[in-house]
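Section 5: illustrative case.
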């Protein structure tokens, strides 16, 4: 009831008026039955704009920290996320993350829509990063289609670290549902999981027009944070431009891939499954 009320009478009308979102391919979202909406992740606001435009309720996997806060603010935050169909997701990896995916399975078993960000966290620079295989495990185990969703311009509305959004138009493109029935029964095969995930990421790259980087976004964020710390003591000597370049990872020898690899090697980071909205 709270979800429907907020979408219909509060957030929906306000967001449509201020941001005038344009949408393509909305008819690709199944009118009934379970499906996964797999989206690129540019901004915290992705989890607000997309459900507003989808006629059916969408449940999202949200990082567990949103549900464990203390004090009045923490309890209010947890209550808000629960009331708006957000589900806690443990991002520590391994068994903990696999167990958290069970909440997503419950949503799909009920015939509902589940929203997932395969990259695991927001893009640090607007590029599209390697997907984690949790989305593949869910799709194959639940035997449901995956609808790729490209969010457009939300990183300009609310860049990382900015609390007050900029008022500007945003868009989203819903691609044709991806059918992975040819892999049913092989959901425990790591090569199949990676193949399915890469196919999803390729569609997201094609729909969004983003440059693809064959690296996990969380790893890149850690590296950028280290560069920013290293650069900070020298900024009075090197100048602000040099500090910004270091923080952005603009090193002359870096040449990111422009398309998903055909046979990428899996790493432990891929076991964590999808992570979700909110600050990384």
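Designed sequence:
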């Amino acid at each position: 009831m709270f979800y429907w009320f907020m979408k219909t009478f509060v957030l929906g009308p306000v967001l449509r008026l201020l941001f005038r979102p344009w949408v393509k391919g909305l008819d690709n979202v199944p009118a009934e039955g379970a499906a996964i909406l797999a989206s690129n992740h540019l901004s915290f606001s992705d989890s607000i704009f997309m459900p507003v435009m989808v006629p059916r309720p969408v449940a999202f996997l949200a990082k567990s920290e949103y549900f464990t806060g203390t004090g009045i603010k923490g309890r209010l935050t947890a209550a808000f996320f629960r009331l708006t169909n957000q589900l806690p997701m443990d991002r520590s990896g391994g068994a903990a993350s696999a167990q958290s995916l069970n909440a997503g399975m419950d949503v799909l078993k009920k015939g509902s829509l589940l929203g997932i960000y395969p990259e695991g966290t927001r893009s640090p620079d607007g590029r599209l990063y390697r997907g984690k295989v949790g989305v593949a495990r869910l799709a194959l185990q639940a035997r449901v289609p995956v609808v790729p969703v490209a969010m457009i311009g939300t990183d300009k509305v609310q860049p990382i670290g900015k609390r007050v959004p900029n008022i500007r138009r945003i868009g989203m493109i819903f691609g044709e549902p991806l059918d992975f029935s040819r892999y049913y029964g092989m959901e425990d095969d790591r090569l199949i999981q990676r193949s399915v995930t890469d196919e999803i990421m390729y569609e997201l790259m094609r729909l969004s027009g983003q440059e693809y980087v064959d690296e996990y976004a969380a790893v890149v964020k850690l590296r950028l944070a280290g560069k920013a710390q290293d650069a900070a003591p020298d900024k009075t000597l090197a100048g602000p431009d040099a500090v910004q370049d270091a923080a952005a990872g603009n090193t002359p020898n870096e040449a990111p891939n422009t398309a998903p690899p055909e046979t990428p090697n899996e790493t432990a980071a891929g076991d964590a499954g999808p992570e979700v909205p909110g600050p990384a």
